[in-house]
Write a structure and sequence with these properties.
The protein has five helices and 33 strands. It is mostly beta strands. Residues about 1-55 have low confidence and may be disordered.
Length: about 425
């Protein structure tokens, strides 16, 4: 049977073929997507027009007390206030683990080490993480599950295990999001008549007392195959009563809102064809940041991130595109994104960084004013290693930026923290 990676590679090839057949159309879009070029009539402005400043302080490095080479620590990061949650999905032969850090007296201290109650090799617990207040959600797509932990008397305890509502859903837990009493879990693949197809679903769970029953199951309506593959559910984000779902093989982001306990689709945002628009997502009040790490006029995967602001009347309008000046081919800018206050963050997992170190990675942060970019800062590891992949995951708090570097395989992984 083909692996998930095999199916994904086939989908990538199909998208590339479609790009080549549509070269005339793509050429017409060069002006819209090339870094530094004028953007569309939405009034968006390129990030290249703003000054780049140095970080105000050296990076702090986080590693868990329990770690080993190849753990993938930093593969997933979530931050809420003074609590940071970091996944290491390859720890203990792929059983996976999550480490919780708390900000105490100005320093991030490890306060908990979480594992699944039924963990086994290959479950990849910690592939995705989310936190909202006193609740943590952890995806384990290798086990087709997600786990909820809640804090009581200073201790984090597993309180629920979430499973897909349909036996067809596969890779459940590839993405997760939390917003208050709402938990969102993506499953970007599906089994249909014994074949795995690249169109998935998103399950929405709502807390009711001490349980988390599934409230609804969202889909794009695509059938998979050569035309209908979209990987709906590869990325999810949640904020208040809004859920965003990425379907980057079709370069789309779906938006849903709840009213009277019912979720309804309210918008579908399209991106540049072949750019993997929707690969990563971040939601904040009135703002949505979308990563498109393959966007580039010459299909060299330089990448971009696109900011949308909610307008009066509820519509979403593109207001800025972030693509740093001098971005090199293959950087994969937009691999990960985050929003916090007036700061937008994007990881470029495969960048060569400042020192031409192969796939050492990097991260950019942008200050936003009135939906536009006001200032940007480039963030890199102080001593980058080949294939460190800094920027695989990013997160932001009120005064700090987190960038995960889960590689190389000879190291356990690191999370870098840059202070504002």
């Amino acid at each position: 049977m083909k692996s998930v990676d095999d199916f994904y590679k086939e989908d990538e090839m199909l998208k590339l073929i479609a790009q080549l057949l549509s070269v005339v159309v793509i050429a017409a879009l060069v002006v819209a997507i090339w870094p530094g070029a004028a953007l569309e009539d939405s009034g968006a402005v390129a990030a290249t027009a703003v000054p780049i400043v140095a970080p105000s302080s050296p990076a702090t490095q986080l590693r868990p007390a329990q770690s080993a080479a190849g753990d993938g620590f930093g593969q997933a990061i979530a931050v809420d206030g003074v609590t940071a949650v970091i996944g290491a999905p390859q720890a203990s032969d792929g059983r996976g683990a999550v480490t919780v850090f708390s900000l105490q007296n100005g320093r991030w201290q490890e306060t908990a080490h979480l594992t699944a109650s039924d963990g086994a090799p290959g479950h990849t617990f910690g592939q995705s993480v989310a936190i909202s207040g006193q609740t943590i959600l952890v995806g384990a797509s290798g086990h087709n599950a997600a786990y909820l932990f809640e804090q009581a008397n200073g201790r984090w305890q597993q309180t629920a295990k979430l499973l897909p509502g349909s036996a067809q859903d596969f890779h459940f837990g590839r993405s997760v999001a939390l917003a208050g009493d709402t938990a969102v879990v993506g499953a970007p693949y599906r089994y249909i008549q014994g074949e795995m197809v690249s169109t998935g679903s998103v399950a929405v769970f709502t807390r009711q007392g001490e349980s988390w029953p599934q409230q609804t199951r969202l889909t794009s309506g695509q059938s998979g195959g050569r035309v209908g593959s979209d990987l709906f559910g590869w990325a999810v984000a949640a904020q208040g009563n809004i859920i965003a779902v990425g379907a980057h093989l079709q370069d789309k982001v779906y938006l849903y809102e709840s009213a009277n306990g019912q979720w309804r689709e309210t918008a579908v945002l399209p991106g540049d064809r072949g750019g993997q628009f929707g690969y990563s997502l971040a939601l904040a009040p009135q703002a949505l940041l979308v990563g498109a790490p393959a966007t580039d006029a010459q299909a060299t995967r330089g990448g971009t991130a696109v900011l949308f602001m909610r307008q009066t009347g509820g519509n979403w309008a593109e207001t800025a595109r972030f693509a740093p000046e001098g971005l090199r081919p293959g950087s994969r800018f937009g691999w990960s994104v985050a929003l916090s206050g007036d700061v937008a963050v994007s990881g470029m997992r495969e960048s060569e960084g400042q020192r031409d170190v192969e796939e050492s990675g990097g991260t950019f942060a942008f200050r936003i004013a009135n939906g536009r970019t006001a200032q940007s800062v480039a963030l890199y590891a102080p001593n980058p290693a080949p294939f460190e992949h800094m920027g695989t995951a990013v997160a932001a708090s009120t005064d700090a930026i987190f960038a995960g570097a889960p590689g190389p395989e000879s190291a356990p992984g690191t999370v870098y923290i840059f202070k504002d």
